Amino acid sequence: MRAATAHLATITGPGYFISLALGAAAGAWLAGSLNTLNGMRPTLSHSVLGALAGAIVAVEIYKAARGIKESTGAAFVGAFALGVAVGRWGCLFAGLPDFTYGTPTHLPWAVDLGDGVGRHPVQIYESVSMIVFLAVWLWGLGVRASWALRRGFYALCVWYGAQRFVWEFLKPYAHVVGPFNVFHLLCAGLVAYGLVFYLRDLAGERRGDRATQGRALSFPGPDHEPV
Predict the structure, then answer these.
(1) What gap in Å lies between CA 104 and CA 112, rounded to an integer?
(2) Contact criterion met (CB below 8 Å) for 74 and 4
(3) How many other CB atoms are found less than 10 A from the CB of residue 160?
């Protein structure tokens, strides 16, 4: 992704990365704390989902102010997917104090985190989901698929938001709207964002293809005019 990183540097400025960092930090602590302060053990916390959502909001505001229209997230797709895939194992090994454990289950692959209760290994579920995405995305890059090259970040948002939305039903977090917790709402917003921008970019790509196909082919003829 060296080319994507170089391209990112040419169309943005230092303010882009400052906005990204500040948005990620604010989103991480805001989302994590909203979830834990609403639970049985009120405390400040942080969340990778909140970091992603906060970074997206801050970057989109920055891009709107600078008039940047194209996607700038391609350089972060692989790092984010791999980071979640590896990091969730750290959450699993941290046990109950990490407060990312699953609800009780009698399934044969339940994990006991030290309290004698078998629980859904939601951290492993999420890790495997992101490994699958990473493998498909890398394959897409290898065959130069336009979805991976142009819209990989939006695809990441849809996949990450959708798979985590499912796993949130297997966590003992407090509900805020019906059966949904804070992270359910963030996941829904992330999926909506990814879909809207993915489809918008896809439509733009197709319009460009049609314009190219409808353009006259130019090669030397008897009158030296395009034929």
Answers:
(1) 9
(2) yes
(3) 24
* Single-letter amino acid, residue 211: A
Of 184, 145, 200, 151, which Cα lies nearest the Cα of 53?
Answer: 184
Alpha-carbon distance of 183 to 126, in angstroms, equals 14
Amino acid at 77: V
DSSP code per residue over the chain? -HHHHHHHHHH--HHHHHHHHHHHHHHHHHHHHHHHHTSSS------HHHHHHHHHHHHHHHHHHHT--S---GGGHHHHHHHHHHHHHHHHHH-GGGT----B--STT-EE-SSS-EE--HHHHHHHHHHHHHHHHHHHHHTT-HHHHHHHHHHHHHHHHHHHHHHGGGS-PPPSBTTB-HHHHHHHHHHHHHHHHHHHHHHHHHHHHHHHHTSPP----TT----
Report whether pLDDT(124) > 50: yes
Rounded Cα distance between 32 and 174, Å, is 12
Q: What pTM was computed for the model? A: 0.87
Q: What is the pLDDT of residues 176-227, one digit of tens each?
A: 999 999 999 999 999 999 999 999 999 988 887 776 665 544 445 444 443 3
Q: pLDDT tens across 59-103, in order?
A: 999 999 999 888 889 999 999 999 999 999 999 999 998 889 999
